[in-house]
Amino acid sequence: MFFDDFRLVRPPMPIPPWQGQYKLKPTDKLTAADVAGPDGIVYPNWKNVGVQGGIPDVPVAVKLADLGAKPESDIADLLDQACREAGRKGGGAVLIGEGTFTLSRPITIQDNGVVIRGAGKDKTKLIFNYAVGQPGTDVGIYWPKAGEPAGPDTVVEAHAWHAGLKGFKMFLNGKEVAGIEAYDYGQAQRVPGSELLEMAGAGEAALRVEAQYEDGHVAKMERKMVLTDKAQAVKAGPSIRTLLFFMGGGIEGAEHKLAEDGKRGDTVLVFEDAGDMKVGDRLVLLAPGTLRFRQQIQHLVGGDDWKRIGYYEVAAKAGNRLTINQPLRIDFPKVDGSNARRMHPIERGGVENLYIEHTSRLPVNSIEFDWGWNGWVRNVKVVSSGNSGAHGYRSKWLEIRDSEFDGAWNFDGGQAYGGFTSCQDSLYENCTVKKYRHAPVVQYGAMGNVFRNSTFDGSDLQWHAGWSTENLFENCVVKSTSSNGGYGYGAYATGSSDTGHGPNGPRNVVYNCDLSGIKEGVQLDGVNEAWIFVHNRIVNEKGAGFSVTRGSFDHTVKNNVFVVKDGASPMAMLSTPDCVGVDLVGNTLVGGNGAIAAGAVKPALEKDNKVLPAGP
Fold it and tell me: What is the widest separation between alpha-carbon atoms in the chain?
């Protein structure tokens, strides 16, 4: 069935959507995933976020100056060499001295314990000047480098500036190359050298790339290259998606299915067959997005990747019973085929004490961890990132702190985000973010992360997708606009009707924050369970200060100040009859229409709220 507007055809939702389990009292039976606060509210447990044991002072393993690095020069090859050498030594810091250096291509780190360190963000500057994406330079051949041969395993790669791109093709000796893999907004083309060898055989060949644009112009680049049937030591260039990319090994091996439900608070998992999983293994625990689950959360169309996911370490094993290092924050039902697989993260790496600026406009992240554990970004300033300044993906115990991120070249979907995707137990603290699209942001199974003591100017706070759960935003300032592609709410959560993103999970918390927006102050768009908003100051231009809809239920809204500027809206709007169980306690409404709550259903508890007139 094709859904033009999912909201119009969605079947009626039960009231409440399901039996809630997160709106707890200190007198209830709590699990190790819960902490009773002194204010009588039960919060998630965030005691172990960020780098475990704190960010270490890593000894220097390689000084880039000893390899010949000089200011005002391109140090891409030397930095790559130094990171590999530090990895061979078992880890250590790669020290970049004072001065301004250029990077003509990204660097990919795949060894544990490698730290890229400058002399200070006001002393060491890295300028990413890869030609493609600079004004007037629309295409480039990225790999192999000029003068290097391409063997059967070599990945030949080219890039094009993505804005207005209509078509992007590669030719060998005048004949179009088939079997190309396109990715990243169509901006890149990749083909194995074996296919080029089949077309032309070994020897010299002419490689050409052409990019066609909507305004009619065609950009071209040509290069003579040598094809060889001999394997090459370097098979592919570094990933173009991130300038400094810490890339883990991902997941491997068979799925080990749960024999019993993994329930919230559990630390012991029972498997049908635990196989060769052992103490010390890192696991990805996944509950697939089955039809049963998607019917429950009313998300019947769109993707279902990375919705219920957890990263754990095996602490003990007894037969098919594994003890994990942390309690589960959510349920992993057997009926959905919940399973675990072994993962191989990159660990204990980081970037610190430097300045990064992009002159290339390609949508390239500045720093990223993918399948990373205990990685960090500290005392870094990023100006005009191609995409996100510091990004965590499929990682655990990351820490991004004491840093500045000022602007990005690109604000299309999926770009200019400040936060975590599919990350867990990670910390974003004491940072300043300006002119991003969504920041702070969590998405696709992001769980147990903390954003603290940070300012976000020009972006919105977003729970952007995929069952993000138990994330904390504390002592943060968010000044939301729509000028950078943000939605204009102070805080926004995607809902079930959003086919590309889906709804978000239970018990996210906003505590003592200042949020401002041009639309509703807070907009929760469906099946959000037991969220907590306490001691915030929320200012919005139009609409309600706090608005929920489509099965958003069991929330605690306590001791906040709402400044509703339009003079016509209530403090809280409970839009649909399934928005039950909402407590409004001790809040102050300034302005608006004078009503504490309105909509299709009354609050479960409305107590000690007051209304003040709007000021001059």
Answer: 82
| pTM recorded for the entire structure | 0.95
- The pLDDT mean for the chain works out to 94
- 373 closest CA partner among 352, 395, 399, 340: 395
State the virtual CA torsion across 404, 408, 412, 414 in degrees, nearest 10: -40
- For 561-583, give the secondary structure using H, E and C: EEEECCCCCCCEEECCCCCCCCE
265, 327 Cβ separation under 8 angstroms? yes
User: How confident is the model over 23-76, as pLDDT tens digits?
Assistant: 999 999 999 999 999 999 999 999 999 999 999 999 999 999 999 999 999 999
Nearest residue to 92 via CA among 63, 121, 126: 63
Residue of 222, 224, 209, 105 whose CA lies nearest to 165: 209
Angle at 65 between CA 63 and CA 66, to 5 degrees: 70
d(C-alpha 557, C-alpha 395), whole Å: 31
What percentage of the chain's residues is helix, strand, coil (to nearest 5)?
Answer: 5, 45, 50
State residue 80 phi and psi, 5-degree precision: -60, -45
Dihedral angle over CA of 503, 43, 521, 452, nearest 10: -100
CB-CB neighbours of 500 under 10 Å: 10
Cβ neighbours of residue 504 under 8 Å, at least 6 residues apart?
A: 463, 465, 466, 467, 468, 469, 493, 494, 528
| Residue 510 DSSP SS3 | strand
Q: For 352, phi and psi rounded to 5 degrees?
A: -155, 150
- For 29, residues 6+ apart whose C-beta sits below 8 A from its C-beta are none
The first and second tokens of residue 218, run together, are 């065609």
| Two tokens, residue 171 | 């030719």
pLDDT digits over 454-493, tens only?
A: 999 999 999 998 899 999 999 999 999 988 999 999 999 9
Q: Which amino acid is at 495?
A: G
Going by C-alpha positions, the residue among 279, 262, 259, 283 that lies closest to residue 271 is 259
The residues, any chain, with a CB within 8 Å of residue 287's CB and separated by 6 or more, are 293, 307, 308, 309, 330, 331, 332, 333, 336, 337, 338
CA distances from 615 to 481, 565, 594, 612 (A): 23, 10, 14, 9
Per the document, the length of the chain is: 616
Backbone CA torsion sign across 339, 345, 347, 351? negative
pLDDT at 306: 58
Structure tokens of 221? 């680049």
Question: Is the omega angle on the peptide bond into residue 144 within 30 degrees of 0, that is, cis?
Answer: yes
With a CB cutoff of 8 Å and minimum separation 6, the contacts of 182 are 168, 188, 189, 190
Encode pLDDT of 506-552 as tens digits.
999 999 999 999 999 999 999 999 999 999 999 999 999 999 999 99
C-alpha torsion 566→572→573→579, nearest 10: 170
Place of tokens 């002119």: 435
Taking phi first (over 0 means left), then psi (-120 to 50 degrees means alpha), and beta for anything else, what does residue 272 get? alpha
- What single-letter DSSP state applies at residue 17? S
Cα→Cα distances 593→48, 49, 166, 226, 604, Å: 43, 41, 50, 74, 21
Give dist(CA 208, CA 172) in Å, integer. Answer: 6
Tokens of 261: 């439900």
Instruction: Assess contact for 534 and 555: CB atoms under 8 A.
Output: no
Distance CA 408, CA 364 (A): 10
Q: Residue 587 and residue 16: Cα distance in Å, rounded?
A: 24
